[in-house]
Design a protein that fits this description.
By secondary structure, the chain is mainly alpha-helical. It has three domains: 1-69, no CATH class; 72-132, no CATH class; 148-238, no CATH class. The protein has nine helices and six strands. The chain has helices spanning 45-59, 73-86, 91-98, 103-109, 114-131, 142-154, 189-209, 212-240, 250-254, and strands at residues 17-18, 23-24, 33-36, 39-42, 160-162, 182-184. A two-stranded antiparallel sheet has the order 1-2. A two-stranded antiparallel sheet has the order 3-4. A two-stranded antiparallel sheet has the order 5-6. Strand 3 (33-36) and strand 4 (39-42) form a beta hairpin. The longest helix has 29 residues, at 212-240. The relative contact order is 0.04.
Length: 270
């Protein structure tokens, strides 16, 4: 700014050419301009690129692979948006400054660094804890910890695991075969098969004695048991199934034959 000001302290207005729009812009106080004889002219993009490459080479800015860094003019818009938003400028104001119609475009310019992500998450947790009662974050007593572990011990069943929430009792009167919260374990399949066969025998007994009410209840239990058996089979098949990633085996690669192209005919002079 000090270099290009005129004796009156003003920045001269110069006309520049927009290569993208292919039009001449109206006179503007451009920062990158130079004095050419009796008039002020805008610096060309090639000259600005040379100045930028020279500045990066002088300061020795290198990337992770130890190569000199290269910047484009558009990179400075991204740097400006990132720096402005990180220092508190609202995104919708930054969108107006850089000329974006959609604030989502501006947010796409902002770079998110790992340190910023960690600090943002920690600040979010701190704000959430400040809003919640402090007694919820106290150290649990030995009795409370034992009760917590005991809840998960009581969820272990012969047929699998109960999926009810912590500190809740069984609302299905321990009818685990019919319960939708039962997570069946394939290891309990022999016991469930024995229960299914026992239900079949009890249904036959109830049918022979004319106990229609028992027949309906036992039939529902047997249907649920068969459904749980199907789930166990699906879980076991899913665990034992191998996923083929499409990687070629060594035998496939070694078995490929290399075809040598025929020799090209020699050129003869006429």
């Amino acid at each position: 700014m000090s270099r290009i000001r005129d004796p009156g302290g003003k920045v001269p207005l110069v006309v520049s050419y927009d290569a993208c729009e292919r039009i001449y812009n109206p006179p503007m106080p451009l920062l990158f301009q130079w004095r050419c004889r009796l008039e002020d002219r805008a610096m060309s993009q090639n000259a600005l690129r040379d100045y930028l490459d020279h500045a990066l080479a002088e300061i020795g800015a290198k990337d992770a692979s130890n190569r000199l860094m290269r910047y484009t003019f558009h990179d400075f818009r991204r740097i400006f948006v990132t720096d402005a938003i990180m220092h508190g400028l609202p995104p919708h104001i930054a969108a107006l400054v850089v000329g974006h119609r959609d604030v989502n475009t501006t947010m796409g310019y902002k770079a998110v660094y790992p340190e910023e992500t960690i600090n943002g998450h920690r600040a979010f947790i701190a704000r959430r804890r400040a809003l919640r009662p402090s007694e919820e974050y106290r150290v649990p007593s030995d009795a409370e910890w034992e009760e917590f572990l005991g809840h998960f011990e009581r969820r272990r069943l012969s047929l699998g695991t109960c999926g009810r929430s912590y500190d809740t009792g069984c609302i299905h009167e321990h009818a685990c075969i019919r319960c939708p919260l039962l997570r069946p374990d394939p290891a309990g399949r022999p016991r469930l098969t024995e229960i299914r066969d026992n239900l079949t025998a009890r249904i036959a007994e109830a049918t022979a004695n004319g106990w229609a009410g028992d027949v309906d209840g036992l039939t529902l239990s047997r249907t649920a048991a068969e459904h749980q058996l199907d789930q166990m089979d699906q879980i076991a098949a899913h665990r034992g199934a191998a996923v083929h990633l499409g990687m070629p085996a060594f035998s496939d690669v070694a078995g490929q034959t290399v075809t040598t192209p025929p020799p090209r005919p020699a050129h003869t002079r006429p």
